[in-house]
Design brief:
This protein is an alpha/beta fold. It has helices spanning 13-21, 47-54, 69-77, 93-96, 119-125, 161-184, 217-226, 292-298; strands at residues 2-7, 25-30, 35-37, 42-44, 59-60, 81-85, 103-107, 115-116, 130-137, 147-154, 200-201, 234-237, 240-253, 260-262, 267-270, 275-284, 290-291. Strands 5-2-1-6-7-9-10 form a seven-stranded mixed beta sheet. Strands 12, 13, 14, 15, 16 and 17 form a six-stranded antiparallel beta sheet that branches. Strand 12 (234-237) and strand 13 form a beta hairpin.
Length: 309
């Protein structure tokens, strides 16, 4: 099958690699334009482009899909199928309808739950026990197309968004190949998504970082693991900003939310429901990330210290 692949970030890389390793022919790869990255603002290609270039695949990086230029490229490539994985642009109807088998998308949630930009983070932030990958037939709606293949996986109570991201990218790559095989063999079953408002996984931003210690231990723990590795949950400690990279739920209980009740190798902090979390990895502004034991070696945190102040 002749395939055009559209993707941009590292989540899409395993899917492209699986296609490269498959029997199918990749006739073109679309990715977002290169961006300036880091303090030195070095122009850097997206991870998908880097992989495509490594394998001598033709790469296209249009600034817009609305000008007709992209459609002309697609028409020239004449794919049987267009595969979209975290591309970052909305496809116009003429592109959606062009290929023999249309466009399919690998989405990192169990649709219709968590349509939108940040399904992985929101599944962790909300403390879900289960998530997965849905391969769907794309339509003009936002993640509303017919479901072609679904694969589920459990979320560990201490799993971070970063860790789940890596797992789902691998699961998604395998699901993609299975779906394409079913499409090719005419065994795929299209299941319409149910109607209704199932919520939208909005973009994650820095306004979500500050920890409200009056919330429950479970909510705070989910915030910490859900915002890892960006933008990272944070709090104040002795007047300084402290990023919290890793936590677990503690067996201890206490009173006074935000109060430190244990400073032996970890920081055990009371939350609004009387339960506690153990903070395992931290980072002061301008400093390196480190385990809490190392942090406590160079930073005095007394029992009774209140975080967030």
């Amino acid at each position: 099958m002749k395939i055009v692949f559209m993707g941009t970030p590292d989540f899409a890389v395993p899917c492209l690699q699986k296609l490269i390793d498959s029997k199918h022919e990749i006739v073109g790869v679309f990715s977002q334009p290169d961006k300036k990255v880091g303090r030195k603002q070095i122009l850097t290609p997206p991870q998908v482009k880097a992989l495509a270039v490594e394998h001598n695949l033709p790469v296209f990086q249009p600034n817009s899909l609305k000008t007709g230029e992209a459609y002309d490229i697609i028409k020239e490539l004449n794919p049987d199928l267009i595969v979209v994985v975290a591309y970052g642009k909305i496809l116009p109807k003429d592109i959606l309808d062009y290929a023999k088998y249309g466009c399919i998308n690998v989405h990192a949630s169990l649709l219709p739950k968590y349509r939108g930009a940040a399904p992985i983070q929101w599944a962790v932030l909300n403390g879900d026990k289960e998530t997965g990958v849905t391969v769907m037939q794309m339509d003009i709606g936002l993640d509303t197309g017919d479901m072609l293949y679904v694969e589920k996986t459990n979320i560990d109570i201490n799993e971070t968004s970063e860790e789940l991201f890596d797992r789902l990218s691998s699961i998604g790559a395998n699901a993609l190949i299975k779906t394409i095989d079913m499409i090719e063999n005419d065994t795929v079953i299209k299941t319409p998504q149910p109607n209704g408002d199932f919520g939208y996984a909005t973009m994650i931003d820095k306004s979500m970082c500050t920890i409200d210690w009056s919330k429950s231990a479970f909510e705070i723990h989910n915030q910490i693991r859900g915002l890892q590795s960006w933008p990272v949950a944070s709090t104040k400690i002795n007047g300084k900003n402290l990023k919290i990279h890793k936590s677990i739920l503690s067996d201890l209980t206490g009173e006074g939310y935000g109060k430190v009740i244990n400073n032996k190798n970890v920081l055990t902090v009371c939350c609004g429901d009387g339960k506690c979390i153990d903070i395992l990895e931290v980072q002061l502004d301008g400093k390196k990330r480190m385990d809490t034991k190392s942090f406590l070696t160079g930073n005095k945190v007394d029992i009774g210290t209140c975080l967030g102040e």
